[in-house]
Specification:
Keywords: Membrane, Transmembrane, Transmembrane helix. By secondary structure, the chain is mostly helical. The chain contains 6 helices and no strands.
Length: 179
């Protein structure tokens, strides 16, 4: 039984094969108490399951909501429309302007106007793009974590899942692992 638990621990911890061989030989030489080995195995399994759940919790808390993306997209449409309107009217205005009387203040306002008209929609579009990519990344990561969690959970013996469930229920933890 100890040998089987050592193999499971090596798989859980993703230990290098050379170090795993050293661990196997060290465990074979020692008189490792079986209840301690089982308790250690359950504790490591419990910690790994908690790590998966913690990462899922963090991802769900930091996920950009679909509503925010829709709002920013709907906000981008009129901002781009206003910018195009400002550019169109600005071109007409500046084309008919007498540039020989323009001073430094006029050029400063001209540059500021161009920066606002072009910069605001560009920055909003850039922000929207970044948030969309972040949401996509988080959803892919969430899907991966759920897949790994389910693979990990199905690889465990039923009695270990039952014992962890029982301990969690006794400690009043809300996470309950389905079988």
């Amino acid at each position: 039984v100890i040998k089987e638990l050592v193999e499971k621990l090596i798989n859980i911890l993703n230990i290098d094969p050379n170090k795993g061989e050293w661990l196997r030989s060290a465990m074979a030489k020692s008189s490792f108490p079986e209840p301690f080995a089982e308790a250690l195995y359950k504790q490591i399994v419990d910690n790994k399951l908690d790590a998966y759940l913690d990462e899922l919790d963090w991802l769900s808390k930091h996920l950009v909501s679909r509503g925010a993306l829709v709002f920013l997209t709907l906000l981008l449409i009129p901002v781009v429309g206003l910018s195009l309107f400002s550019i169109y009217t600005g071109i007409y205005y500046y084309a008919n302007l007498d540039w020989s009387n323009a001073d430094v203040v006029f050029y400063m306002f001209f540059v500021l106007n161009l920066t606002i008209v072009i910069g605001v929609p560009t920055m909003l579009a850039h922000t929207l793009n970044k948030l969309y990519k972040q949401r996509k990344e988080f959803l892919e990561r969430q899907k991966f974590i759920i897949k790994k969690f389910n693979e990990w959970l199905t690889s465990l013996p039923d009695h270990v899942i039952d014992e962890i469930n029982q301990e969690r229920l006794e400690e009043d933890k809300t996470a309950h692992f389905p079988q």
